[in-house]
Structure formats: structure tokens, C-alpha cells
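Discussion board: Methods & Data

I've been asked by a reviewer to show the raw model output for two of the constructs in my manuscript, not just the figures. I'm not sure how much to include, so I'm pasting the format here to get opinions. Each protein appears as its amino acid sequence followed by a line of C-alpha cells. Is this the kind of thing reviewers expect to see in a supplement, or should I convert it first? Here is construct A:
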Amino acid sequence: MYEEKYDKYSATVKGLAIISIMSPTVYMNYPGFSSVVFLDGKNLRIGFLTGYYTIKDGVNLFQVEFENDFTFDGVAYHWGCVDASQYRTYDVGKDSSAKNIMANLIANNKTILENNLLCAGMISYMEANGETVPVAHRSVLYNLQSRLEARNGKILNSPFIDSKQTASPTGFDQYASNLQSFMNNPGIGIAPVVIYLVVTVVITLLSTALIYLMFKPDYSESKSHLKQSSDLTKALATLSPEARARAIADLEGQIDKAYITGKTDGSGGGILKTGMYLGAGFLGFTVIDKFLQNRDKK
């Protein structure tokens, strides 16, 4: 990250966002060997301070990790520096806040997927038995799963999270199949689907402010969707007592398999209780992939 080019360091500014107070100049990579981009406007958030800086020709130049890579002359730049006088700093979140948001977001996403799987199972059962499923219920499930996929994809694709681990549901294979079939042909549209979850992430100190800012809206959405998914599962169970009974029977018939898988797959506490309205049972989640991102430091 070219830190050797900076002869000074301040831990107090590390991780702070910087927002322009005038039309700023951005220097790519590091002083003395860089391209220059001139931006037009105030209140532009460029990126986040690494803590490294230097003084050149009387100007305080602070190193920045860009929020989004700058592409200049066909080259993508991840690091740069800025004139401190052109910016103000903004602390958008402490380390604990970012970690709490991600932990709660992941937990909400897990429960939403569990509810979505159960809803898809009940819808499949009702359709097979000639029962009508309201379009409104279909639309809610489609939106819940689509947005869940988007939130998971955003986590996986974020360059500011150093490692991610995904998992897929176990013990209830038919529900995963039901959900995938529903998403591929929901009766309201068509979309591909992969049933998985992001179950663990690692946040670096430098990226905590960014993580807080980027994923707070996703966390807020997950809280709202958690209630929607619970309400939908209850509504479908009420709509078809037979489908509810079938779901309970499935849970009771596979509880041991799901429990054993969840306990032995190395994923830690990857066993989630189902909603009480469906009876006692568990869904297991088994780790399927590890995503490790090692940034290019030079």
C-alpha cells in the first residue's frame, strides 16, 4: 500500500472518512509518482485515511484508501493521497458498531432464509394439492429472497471485507429445491437463484468506518424483512393447515440429520431454531466455501 513513501503516521485519523470542502485534487498511488484527478464539487466522500501522511512543499498529503477504485488512463487505482486542507474528516462508525451491524445482518439473513425455505415448502405442497396461493404471498416471498441474494452478494463482492465464508442449508434438501424452483418460476417473474448464506466475515480496522456506512442500510432492510418473512410464514401456515402439518412432519422426521450435520460440519453455531409456529425443529447450515481476499500491497 506504499506506506514506505510516507514518513509520518497518526493512529488518531486511521479509518476516518474524508469529505471534500471544495473541488479537490486526488493524487493516485503516492507522492512523486502519480496521476492526478481533479474533482468538481463539495461534500464528496473520496475514501478513508490509512493514518500515513507526509509533508511536501508545505502541503499535508494524507494517504487514502479509495471508497471506489479510480480508473484513470485504463489503470485502476486503489490507493492515493489528498491535500488535507481540501477535506474534513468524518467518523461514521466505531469498530464495535461495524462488527455488530455485520453480525446482526448475517443473523437476520440466516433466519430470513430459513423462513423462505419453509414458505417455499408450504407453497409447493399447496400447489401439488390444488390449493390456491395468493399472488400477494408469492410476491412477498420473491422479493424477500431476491433482496436476500442481493445483500449476500454485496457482502461477498465487497473489497473492504478481508474474508468471507458461505454456507448452504442441510437436512431439508427438498425445501432448498422448492425455493429454487419457486424463484425460477414464481408466477410473477423469472430470476436465477443459488441457495446459500454468508455466515462469517472478517473486518479490518481500516475498513470499519466504511463497513458501517455501507451496510447499515442493508441491516435496516434485514430487520424489516425479518418481520415480513415471519408474517408470511405464519400467513401460509394459517392459509393451509395441511401444509403446516406437512412442514412439522418434515421437521420432526429430519431433526436428527440436521442437528448432527450442523454440529459436525465445522461451522460452529450454525443451527437455527425454526419459528415456534411450526413446532420444534432445526435447520442446519454446512460450510461450502471460503472466500479469502488478500489485497495487493505493492
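Construct B, same format:
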Amino acid sequence: MLSIEANKLGSLVVSYGYLTTRVWDVATGDCIKVVKTPPKRPRPHNIAFVDEDEMTLVGGEDRYIRFFSLDDTSNNWELRAQIEEEITEDTTVNFPICSTISPDGTMIAFGYRTHPVTVWGIEPQMLVNQCNMALDATDMTIQDSTWGEVFGLAWHPFDGTLFGITQVGILFKWEPFYGDEASVKAPNAGAHRLTVNRDGSLLATPDGMGSLKIFQSSDLALLYHLSSQDPVLYLSFSTDSRRIYDIWGAYGNVWKTNTLARLAKSDYPDHNSNAGGDVKSPSTMLSIQTEYHSVRMDKVIALAGRSVGPLYCYGTEDGVAVLCEAGKGKAGEVERLQSFMSIEQLT
């Protein structure tokens, strides 16, 4: 499995695999369509449902945009566009590191290692703009060669704004139709991925050092910071933006923070609001920046149960052996090694 994506209603899921791409009905669990993976098996960067969920667009590392329709009896991919980047004197063009299709399926953005971020119109195929992110005077410690290496991109759900993250963890915001430079930067993000919530008001970023941060999308102000000892691999907002779902190392969490609850209950206008007057932004409503440190999870790596009776014992990665009774839970610790060496076998 290389990538999965759900439609807006949550009724369908597309899974893009090494050999086939499949569409699943969430309610029944049935596979309703199977399409063979294109030749040379290009890795997908982005999957998007468009045309009222009847058509699936996929943008990959080969800069081809392919699609198939759920109503079509053919089980083959069709080519929608093939993007040929323009090469300049100061840059080189290899396969893009990341790409993302706009929510309406009309544009695609590419991020490269040694080339500016580009946005292309799909139909008609045309270059919309390039993002030339110039260094600020305060950012001179960051080398030019690393500044432009964009490793993650995400569209705002409604207004055409593009958010990105560079290899050195700089979060930026860019409006392709209104300028060729990033309008807002957050150098302290320190992340390697990003995700945008459903209404586009918040961004969340994880990193390999165990930090999860939530930013206000309008000015990239930091609203919440969660720290842990395990790397954050993936994360996503819930549909109501009150929870964060994440994967930390070998386990997952569901977070319901007070920060998200206060923002969800606030009365600041959303993207569809026409209300006038002075309205406080989320960052001004939060009196202090929230920071939380998560307790590290000690992994269970050994387990043994009695042949008769309800007792069992488990051992952890940090050298703790715990005796438990089925249905009642922990009865006590059998051993806690001072050396923190793992307990790998029990009987």
C-alpha cells in the first residue's frame, strides 16, 4: 500500500498499491473497482476525488496526472496531463519530491530539491506561477541550497493558498495568483510534514523528534505544542477539527486538546462568513501558548500466560515485568531492572 485517500463524504476510499489501485465502499467493505497500476509503477504523491466523487485524479513523481472514472466500465488509467517543467540557468529539474492537486482538481503544485515550487493549471495546461523564496536578513544562517528544498505541500480547501514545508523545517504560505514569493514564513516549525483542517483555519505539523505543533493558517502563529520522546510519523485532523489523529512510532493516539475545543466553540468568522467589524483571531483569543509533554509509552515486547487460571505476565522494552489478572488488570510488578534492559522472554 503506497497511499490511501477518502472522498469528501467518507463513503469511498481509494487505495493505491504496488500492483493495483482499488476503490472501496466504506459502509460494506466491498471493493467496487480495480485498476492496474500504470507501467513503471510511479509512486503517487496525491489522490483527489473530483466531479462529485465520480472521478479520481492521481499526481505522481513522474509529473503525469492520471485519472479513472467510477462510472466507466474500463479498468484502465487515462492521461489527463503531462507536465514538462521549465529549466532555468540556476536550477535543475529532477523528479518532484512532493506534489498536491488542488481541491477542485484544476491545478497541481510540485515541490523540488533544487527548483522553485511551481503551480500548473491542468486543463488547459499552463504554468500559473513559481515561488521564489528569497532569504531574509534574519535567515542568513540558512544556506541557499537548502532553503528551496520543499518536502511537503498542501492546499487551503477554498481560497487557492498553498502551504509548504522545507527540508530544514521552515513552514511557509504562498498565494500563487498574487505573487511569486512566500508571503508568510514560520522558521520555528521544524517539521517534515503538514496537514490542513477541513475549513482551512489550522495547520498541524509533526517531526521526527517527537513534536506536534498546531498553527493558525492566516499568519502561521503557533497555537499549540505537544512534545513526546517518540517520532511523529503521520497525523490528521478530525472532520470537526476538535481532535488530532496521529501515529507515533509503533502506536497511534487520538488527542482532544483544550486549544482545539476553545477554537471550535469560538465565534470568529469562517471562510464563508460576511460578518463585518473587528473580530479577534484565534491567536489573540488564546491568552497563552499551550504546551504539553506526553509521557513516553513503554512498549510490551514479551507476554506469557498460565496454562490454567487467569494470571498472565508481560515484559516491556524498559525492563519492567508486570503480573496481571485477566478481567481485573495489573496485580503488581514482578521486576523493574535498574539497567533498563529489555525483558525479551517470559514463561
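Answer (T.O., handling editor elsewhere):
This is acceptable in a supplement if you add a one-line summary per construct. For B, something like: Confidence is low (pLDDT under 50) at residues 137-146, 267-288.
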